[in-house]
Amino acid sequence: MRVSRLELTDFRNYRTLKFSPAPGLNLVIGPNAQGKTNILESLYALATTRSHRARRDTDMVRFGADAARIVAEVTRENAGDALLEMAIAAPNGVGGEKKLVKINHGKQARVTDLIGNFNAVLFSSTDIDIIRGEPEERRRFLNYEIAQVSPRYILALGAYKRALEQRNRLLKDVKYGATGIESLDVWTTQIIEHGSKIIERRRAYLDKLSVHAAEVHRDLTNRTETLTLSYAPSFPLSPDTITAEEAAITFKNALALVRRDELSRGSTLLGPQRDDLLFYVGTSPENATDVKIYGSQGQQRTAALSLRLAERRLIKEMVGEEPVVLLDDVLSDLDETRRGQIFALALSGGQTFLTATDVQSLPAATVAEARIWHVNAGIVSDSEG
Amino acid sequence: MLHYARPLARLVAEFEKLPGVGPKSAQRLAFYIMRLSDEEARAFADAILEVKAKIGYCKVCFNFTDQEICDLCRDSRRTDDLICVVAEPRDLIAMDKTGEFKGKYHVLGGVLAPMEGIGPDQLKIRELLARLHAHEVKEVILATNPTVEGDATALYLARLLKDLTPRVTRIAHGVPVGGDLDYADQATLIQAFEGRREL
């Protein structure tokens, strides 16, 4: 799949931007802070309905504007062409809707209806934080990437978050004697119902992703290293726990064991909000160790790269089409070998966007194959070579 | 910056307090009021005051009424055997428009929501139990919204009512009748799929 036309209005530093990317490699060139990443951010938002870097969606609206708009013409091999639109209202803007989504000019009932129309994988220099950062980074990775292929996951996530907030508040109120305990059980049932769906999806996704990650990682390291992904839920889950119903039973039993602790601390202690993801690297699966703790920075970077490459393959497997590849500022921290791997990826077939500060630092062979776009102060200009 | 004359500013400010009304709509409504004749404006103001003075809660079902017991509760054509439990009076109106339900209603006055300080004691649950103790009821239908809070409330009531009435049911949710699957949003379709039943 590819984007044949992109229009941004009042998006970040762009008042208006219209351009028609090439089917293959697009080099987005310009000095820092001119709007290169913003272009990639808009495409990723069309795939996930959210910004990959803003804490609030409203950060995507140009300062002083009422709303930001992303319009993209998407060409797909097996689903036909589609015109996708997303509008994001400024904070305190007029009218109730914060985000609005249209597909082929038809307004959708829910923003999540956009999901599944367009897929993108974003490689970023901050991907290493997924490997070495806090568990929150890894849950964020899971949430974004599973959401992109599963609207049901987004629904479960929203309902779970809401039920968890209510339950936490109740536990706190009970702890301080502000209210009775009699409605705790129904909130427990609610977090089990929605939480077990999240667990089911995370496990299924990771089972598939780890197969690809292992293969990709072997290739990246010339068959010297293995990478194993392991789901680490907040309570022990046996390997044959597959369905949400099975996960619900385990979740329920685990919660029963910590009930007294939860009441004395006034907070929910188990559930998907405490899940983690472990990465093991070694010369063989038998001697592999946790790369977050024992890996060198180089190993951590390679693991992060493997993770994104695996994601790309998994989307292709699930959707049946190559997703658009977004390479955001990925070159600066890499050594020669990994830079070479990135350039090979950039030219590997599908539509790719690569940001860089100048063309000179790129291999001539890569530049020769690419369409070059210069970005300066929110203006994008076309140039041939 | 230009300011409204004080009485106008006051009216605009009052409209802005209404749900779903922003600054621009408030201004439009206030300007509309200014164009009304004195009688029309007075009728509007009277309607607001009359609602406040005369409308209270029905002693039985807690729907809005201008009497001690509301018309629905006094309607002898309706059976006392069935009680449909809803969160808000507007839900009762929506349910009753169908004309299908011939039983009585019970309005909870909200749903369980610890974050808003709403627990079982803040809802008309004790009053519902009292009704079940006073009359034999064959079925209680739980018609709260299919949200996290609505589901939690229905579940809480179901457990509480289990021994007091032979049948506790929950309304179904899913695809709109007569609509194309094509037009239903994904959330609704997913829920309809999960709630599928055998034919």
Specify the helix fraction band of chain A: 40-55%
Q: Which percent band covers the strand fraction of chain B? A: 5-15%
CATH class of the largest domain in chain A equals Mainly Alpha
- The CATH architecture of the domain at 77-199 in chain B is 3-Layer(aba) Sandwich
What is the arithmetic mean of pLDDT of chain A? 91
Our count of helices of chain B gives: 8
Report the portion of residues of chain A in β strands. 15-25%
Taking Cα atoms only, what radius of gyration of chain A do you get, to the nearest Å? 22 Å
CATH topology of the largest domain in chain A: Glutathione S-transferase Yfyf (Class Pi), Chain A, domain 2
Q: Write the element-wise H/E pattern of chain B from the N-terminal end onward.
A: HHHEEHEHEHEHEH
Secondary structure tally, helices of chain A: 11
- Most strands sheet of chain A: 6 strands, antiparallel
Structural class of chain A: alpha/beta
Largest sheet of chain B: 4 strands, parallel
What is the structural class of chain B? alpha/beta
- Ends apart, CA distance between termini of chain B: 67 Å
Instruction: Give me the strand/helix succession of chain A.
Output: EEEHEEEEEHHHHEHHEEHHEHEHEE
* Count of individual beta strands of chain B: 6
| N- and C-termini, Cα separation of chain A | 25 Å
CATH topology (level 3) name of the domain at 77-199 in chain B: Dna Topoisomerase Vi A Subunit, Chain: A, domain 2
Q: What is the CATH H-level superfamily of the largest domain in chain A?
A: RecF/RecN/SMC, N-terminal domain
